[in-house]
TrEMBL record, chains A, B:
GO terms for cellular component: mitochondrion; peroxisome. InterPro entries: FAD-bd_oxidored_4_C, FAD-bd_PCMH, FAD-bd_PCMH-like_sf, FAD-bd_PCMH_sub1, FAD-bd_PCMH_sub2, FAD-linked_Oxase-like_C, FAD-oxidored/transferase_4, Oxid_FAD_bind_N. This is D-2-hydroxyglutarate dehydrogenase, mitochondrial. Transmembrane segments: none annotated. Catalyzes the oxidation of D-2-hydroxyglutarate (D-2-HG) to alpha-ketoglutarate. Also catalyzes the oxidation of other D-2-hydroxyacids, such as D-malate (D-MAL) and D-lactate (D-LAC). Exhibits high activities towards D-2-HG and D-MAL but a very weak activity towards D-LAC. It comes from Arctia plantaginis. Its cofactor is FAD. Belongs to the FAD-binding oxidoreductase/transferase type 4 family. It catalyses: (R)-malate + A = oxaloacetate + AH2. Its EC number is 1.1.99.39.
Amino acid sequence: MKKSLRSIARLHCKNNIVLQIRNASQVLPQFSSLKYKIERKNFGVVDSSDVGFFKSILDEQRVLTDENDILPYNIDWLKSCRGQSKLVLKPKTTKEVSKILKHCNERRLAVCPQGGNTGIAGGSVPVFDEIILNLALMNKVINLDDVSGSLVCEAGCVLENLDNYVRDRGLIMPLDLGAKGICQIGGNVSTNAGGLRLLRYGNLHGSILGIEAVKADGTVIDCLKSLKKDNTGYHLKHLFIGSEGTLGLVTKVAIHCHVQPNAINLGFFGIKNFGNILTLYQRAKSNLGEILSVFEMADFDSINSTIRNLNLRNPIADYPFYVLMETHGSNEAHDHEKLMKFLSNEVETGLILDGTVTSEPAKIQSIFKIREGIASAGFQEGYVLIYDVTMPLKNYYDLVPMLKKRIGDKALQVYGFGHIGDGNLHITIVVPEYNKEVISLIEPYVFEEVSKVNGSISAEHGIGIRKPQYIHYSKDQSALQLMRDLKKLMDPNGILNPYKVLPDL
Amino acid sequence: MKKSLRSIARLHCKNNIVLQIRNASQVLPQFSSLKYKIERKNFGVVDSSDVGFFKSILDEQRVLTDENDILPYNIDWLKSCRGQSKLVLKPKTTKEVSKILKHCNERRLAVCPQGGNTGIAGGSVPVFDEIILNLALMNKVINLDDVSGSLVCEAGCVLENLDNYVRDRGLIMPLDLGAKGICQIGGNVSTNAGGLRLLRYGNLHGSILGIEAVKADGTVIDCLKSLKKDNTGYHLKHLFIGSEGTLGLVTKVAIHCHVQPNAINLGFFGIKNFGNILTLYQRAKSNLGEILSVFEMADFDSINSTIRNLNLRNPIADYPFYVLMETHGSNEAHDHEKLMKFLSNEVETGLILDGTVTSEPAKIQSIFKIREGIASAGFQEGYVLIYDVTMPLKNYYDLVPMLKKRIGDKALQVYGFGHIGDGNLHITIVVPEYNKEVISLIEPYVFEEVSKVNGSISAEHGIGIRKPQYIHYSKDQSALQLMRDLKKLMDPNGILNPYKVLPDL
C-alpha cells in the first residue's frame, strides 16, 4: 500500500518550519503494530450502528470514515508510526466528548485522543483501529482575566493562536515550543510539554490552574478553577498532566499567563567546548538572574545540518558549539546594560569566542528559526531517530560522542542540542533508511546510559508507543504498579489510548 | 482535665513570632471529636504487643507513651483541635516508616502523620487515638547540586534550616512562610503550602522535582528524581502534594532552589482604599515585572492589632490599607532605579499616600515581622478564628466588611490581609471566647460567599478536619467521587489521617 504523503503534508504543513516532510515520493510508514510487534487487545469493533450513533450526536462532516480523509490522522509527525483507524470524530463540546466516551466505554471501543499530533513518541496516533478523537474543533478561548493573567480555553486551541491572543492583551503564554503553530494546548497539557522557556516560566504542573477532563466512562471531572491557590482536597488536575490521554481526555484548560516583557534580547554565541557552556550557564544565572529566559545549546553538526538543509544563514562563523540565550525584562536599558557587561566579561574570559546580540524582532525570529529548525532538518537527508532525555548537567553531552562512536558510519549524522536550563538533551540520528540493526545498537543502550546517571529516558515528549518497554529505566516497580492501579481505577476497560505509556506485564 | 499549656509552649515556642501562645492559664482545647461531633471509626486499638513491635524497630526514646510527653503532639497550633493519641513514633528512616505503616495497615491501626504542626485546618493532629507519626527526626539534607539548584532532603527538615543551608551556597528556597522556623518541608509539600513569594517563584507543584513517599501498606514509592523534566509515565509525585497525608506519607523531597538575589528591597506603603491596591498591583506587575517577589496587603485593623499586641512599631502613619512589596533582583542599581521611578510615579498619582523603602537587612526583617505577626496577633485578645480563602481579585476584600456587618459587636476584631499576587485572603476574627453562636453566623456563610464568586474555601491551608463538610463549596460531586476512589485505591483500610479532607458520604 504505497501512497503519496501529500495528504499528510496538507494537514501538517502550515507555516511552521518543524513540519517539513520528507520527499513526497517516499512510501507510507510501516504499521506501528508490525513495527513494534503489538497484538490487538480484545476491544470491540466499530460497526454501522456505532457510526450511526456518533452521527446522531455530531453532524455528519465531523464523523470521518473515508480512508483518504483519515490517513493523515493515522500517521505521526515523525512519520515513524502508523495506525489503522477507520473513524475520526471531531467533537465541538465537552458534552459531545462525554457522550462519545460513554458509548465507547459501554461498547469497549478503544479511543485515541489527538491534539496537534506533533509529539515524537507516537502517542497521538492509533496502533490498530482505535477511534481517533480529534480535538481540533474545540478551539475557543473562554475567558481571559488580564489582571490575574488567567486564561481559560478549550483543549483544541493552537498554542500560537493563544499566544497571539494573550499578547494582544499584554501577556504571554508560559510555554513556547518549536511546534507552536500546530500543537494544541490540550496536547501540551496531556504530554506535559516543556519547551524553550521552562527555565524562566516553569513547567505546566506549576502553570496550569485548572483542568476539565472527561474520564473513560464519560464522567466530566470539573477542576477548571482559575485560581492560583486552591487547596481543597486532592489536586486532581495533575492526574491529567503528562498522562498522555490514558487517564482521561483534557477538554478545557485554565493557565497562568505572564506579563509580556517590555524588552527582549537574543544572543547567539560560538563556544569552544561543552565544559565552557556549563560555566557560561552558571555565570548567566548569577549575572542575569531574573531576566534570563532561554539558555539553549547546539553542537556544530546540529547547526550545520539545519542551515544546510533549510537554506538558512548562520549569523556567525563555524564553532564546535553554540549557545542561544534570550532575556525577557521590563526595562530595555537595564537589560541591555546587564547583558553587555556580562558578554564583554565572557568574551574577555574566552568563554564566548564570537557572537551576535539583537533586540530587533526580525533578527530574533531569524535566529530562532535556526534553533527551531534543528528538529526537522534531518528529514531532508534520511530516516530520523530522535531521542529526548534529561541528563544531570555534568553528563549532559556525554551521550553524543558515545553514540557517534558506537554507530560509526552506519549513521549519516549524530548530533545533540537542547535546553541546558533544564538538562533536556535532544539527540538526532539520521540514517539512510529505517534499519533495525542500527536501532538495536541504540536501544536500549541509550536508555541504559541515561539510567546509569539517574537521568530521564523521556524529558518532554512522553512514553507514547515508542518507550513503554523502556520505562523501567526511569520508574521502579512500585511506581509502575501504582501507575497500573491508577489506570485500572480511571479506565477499567482500558479504552483510552491503549498500547501507550504502560508496559505489558 | 485542665492542664497548663506550658508543655505545648515548650514544643512550639522556638524563636518564631507566629507561635505566641495564649495566656497559659487558659484551659486545654476541647477534644476535636466532641467539637466536630465525629464518631470513631472501626480501627484497631494499640496494645502492648504493638508498642513492643514499634520499640523493636525504633529505639525506646523514639516511642512516646507518656501522657504528658504526648500532649503537645495532640494539640494544633491554633489550639482549636485536640486529639487523644496515646502513642507518638519518631522514625529516622524511610525503612522505619515503611515497617511502621505495614504493621499499622495489617492491624488496622489509624495513623496521623505530623510535620511541624503549624497548619490551621487541624490536619496534623489526631482526632481519636491515631498513632502520631512525627517526622521531626528525618531532618537530613541528602544532596545539593548548586549548578542546577536541586536540593534533596528528608521530609522532617525545618524550612528555615533548609533556607539557611542553601543560602550558604548562593541559593534560596522557592517558598517562604511565616511559620518557616518550625514548619517542615514534608508538611509543606503535603499541604501544598504557598506563602509570600508564590507570585515570583511559583507553587510547589512547579518547584517539587521529586518525592519519596510511603503508601499505607508500607510500599515505598520512589519518585525522588531531581530532574527538571521527566515525562516518563504518570506524574505520581503530585498525588502526595496537597493530599494532607491521606494518600501516603512523604519521606523525602527534591526541590528546585533559585539563585539568591543580589539585591533585595522592601517597601511598606499606606493606601487609601482597596481599589487603589489593585491598581497599584497591576502597575507594579508591568513596571517591576521580573523583580517583583512579594505583593501583600493588610487592612488597618490587621496592622494595628499586630503592632499593639506584639509591641512592634508601625514605620509609617495610620492608613486604611497597607501594601508590603518586595523586589528580588540581580543588580542593585537597576532595581533601585526601577523601584524609585515606580514609587515616585505612584506617589504622584496618589495611589501611594506614604511609605518607606529599605534595602537594609535589619529594617527588612523588622517590617516583615509585622506582616508575619498578623496571623498570631489576635491570640493576645481572645479566641481566634482564621479563614484562608482565594477570591477573584475584584472581589478580594468584599468578605471583610460583609463579615464585620454580619457579626457586629459579637467579635472583638475582624480583619483581612493576604497575598494579592495569588488572590489569597486571610480573615482573622477574634471573639472573647469559643462561641458556637458566632461560628454559626460565619460558617457556612463565608464558604457560600466564596463559592458564589468561584473562589476557593481553602487557599493554602488545606481541608484538614475543619472543612470536609464544606468541601462541596469548592469541589463538585464527580471530583469528590474521584477523590474517594483514589483514597480507596491508595489506602483501602483508610488508616492514613482519617476524618480529614474527605467528607463522609
